[in-house]
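Try this one yourself first.
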């Protein structure tokens, strides 16, 4: 412990973060140990770099780098039925041959929804009530019924919700799915930083406030956790990666898979036409000739409203976190990870006098990587435009748009029949 303490002390002094040990002597042994482990796990150099970037962006605004141009897409609905059948057959063969896996990203904090456990444990008020995890398990079970094989299901959690997620699956007997076909892996976390001082947020006397490193943390997490190696060992060639919070997500869509197989491309993303110019979804485009998504917070007014003469949006294909990747993407991308974007959030913190302050306005930076930054590693990708009402019912907010109520209505519309 002394050795660890010494190392932690040196590190915090080197990087001007001594406040992290200010209450150390007041902690019991277990909490002391946990705090030292947290400190030794922080990449202080990265933290410093991210803070400096955030301050620069704050002063200069976020600059959209590179030349943004439109990207093409295929529209599922306008393809002939025989073509779609052909893709479906190809996709089903891949699934039956064990070359396909579904990946669910469930490491987010779900702050907007305000649910206290992992987002996947949130129940949608359909008849009978189902949790978001169960809805996805149900879709996988249906494929098993149809094909006679269990599609491997990889679930990304965070250090914050991993235990609760695993316990929920255990309590619910894995929703009847094959336990040995479900794999949990944990994504990384990064400390939150006070925006005015650059100090790492201490949320309790012995605890650094950390946040999951964004859905873009998935690639490094798959490498470090062994999930990628496991897929390779199993001979998996394609993985669908989606979020936990879309009750219409098609985890095993043979048509999309078949389309990808014949396309010769390594990555593909489902899109749908944005609801209005300012819908809170990123839009597909090209940046410097490579596929890219501009996040909604970074879309300019001009870009949001640009239309062709026929009235269609120039940048109208919204990204809905339904993407397909060939396993070879890991060879192209390496293990460096994706760039971090800055969010500005409210983070309760421990003041110097030991009092916990709940700020009324954002006070801390949180850093997140976005999965779609991976697209920019490739020259080309397939954009597969589908119908919103059939495949997109996100659960983001407590009420209003994209809430449990809107998701329930969409699920009752056609979700119960969608596999
Ligand atoms: P969102 O970006 O909507 O975040 O995640 P969220 O955590 O669910 O909700 P807010 O923003 O805190 O309200 C979209 C999907 O990506 C996953 C989420 O679990 C969700 O399935 N995600 C997000 C992760 O797995 N890890 C992250 O670090 C962030």
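Now uncover the answer:
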């Amino acid at each position: 412990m002394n050795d660890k303490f010494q190392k932690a002390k040196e590190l915090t002094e080197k990087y001007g973060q001594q406040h992290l040990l200010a209450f150390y002597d007041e902690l019991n042994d277990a909490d002391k140990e946990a705090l030292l482990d947290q400190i030794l796990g922080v990449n202080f150099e990265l933290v410093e770099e991210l803070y400096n970037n955030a301050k620069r962006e704050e002063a200069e605004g976020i600059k959209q780098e590179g030349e943004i141009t439109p990207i093409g897409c295929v529209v599922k609905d306008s393809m002939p039925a025989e073509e779609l059948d052909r893709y479906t057959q190809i996709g089903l063969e891949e699934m039956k041959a064990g070359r396909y896996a579904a990946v669910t990203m469930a490491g987010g904090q779900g702050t907007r929804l305000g649910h206290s456990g992992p987002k996947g444990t949130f129940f949608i008020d359909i008849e009978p009530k189902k949790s978001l995890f169960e809805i996805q398990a149900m879709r996988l079970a249906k494929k098993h019924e149809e094909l006679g094989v269990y599609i491997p299901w990889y679930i990304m959690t965070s250090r914050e919700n991993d235990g609760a997620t695993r316990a929920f699956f255990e309590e619910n007997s894995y929703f009847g799915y094959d336990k040995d076909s479900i794999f949990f892996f944990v994504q990384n976390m990064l400390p939150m930083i006070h925006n005015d001082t650059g100090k790492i947020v201490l949320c309790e006397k012995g605890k650094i406030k950390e946040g999951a490193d964004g859905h873009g943390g998935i690639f490094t997490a798959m490498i470090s956790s062994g999930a990628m190696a496991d897929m390779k060992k199993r001979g998996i060639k394609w993985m669908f990666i989606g979020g936990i919070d879309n009750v219409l997500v098609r985890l095993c869509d043979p048509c999309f898979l078949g389309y990808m197989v014949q396309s010769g491309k390594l990555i593909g993303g489902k899109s749908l036409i944005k609801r209005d110019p300012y819908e809170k979804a990123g839009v597909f485009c090209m940046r410097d000739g490579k596929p890219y998504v501009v996040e909604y917070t970074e879309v300019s007014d001009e870009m949001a409203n640009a239309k062709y003469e026929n009235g269609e949006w120039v940048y109208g294909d919204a990204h809905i976190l339904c993407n397909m990747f060939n396993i070879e993407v890991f060879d192209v991308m390496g293990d460096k990870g994706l760039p971090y974007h800055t969010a500005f959030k409210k983070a309760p913190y421990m003041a110097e006098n030991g009092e916990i302050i709940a700020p009324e306005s954002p006070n801390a930076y949180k850093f997140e990587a976005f999965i779609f930054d991976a697209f920019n590693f490739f020259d080309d990708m397939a954009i597969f435009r589908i119908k919103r009402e059939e495949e997109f019912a996100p659960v983001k907010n407590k009420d209003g748009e994209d809430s449990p109520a809107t998701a329930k209505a969409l699920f009752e519309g056609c979700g119960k029949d969608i596999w």
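Discussion: Residues 105-112, 119, 156, 187, 212-215, 217, 243-245, 321, 368, 396 surround uridine 5'-triphosphate (CB under 6 Å). Residues 43 and 325 are 29 Å apart (CA to CA).
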